[in-house]
Amino acid sequence: MTVLTEIPGLSRVREHFLDLLPERLETIAMSLQAASHGVDPAQIAALLEPADITLHRIAGAAGSLKLGDLGAHARRTELEVAAYRFACRESDPSDFNRVATEIEDFVAAASAV
Known about the structure:
CATH architecture: Up-down Bundle
Oligomer: single chain
Helix content: over 70%
Largest sheet: none
Number of domains: 1
Strand content: under 5%
Radius of gyration: 15 Å
Number of helices: 5
CATH superfamily: HPT domain
């Protein structure tokens, strides 16, 4: 079985991913900040879309780059955001503070990577 670090060029891909991580975390944080000023559920759902997309990208790539904990945390947060966005489209969302805390926790943890 091939060890992940033996794949040619993988370390460069991992470095590039980590170089882009602060920008991606900023996108997530800005999306949350904008959503916190949303005036109705549909607008809040739309404003959280960049966070949802970015979390999905992080979750998908991190595991392949030996960043499994980061990927798992991103996936959990993505699922929370997606569920909240769905609730916004279907009815009044339950608790914005819960999803906001989940996003803030992910950004803080990912910043330490």
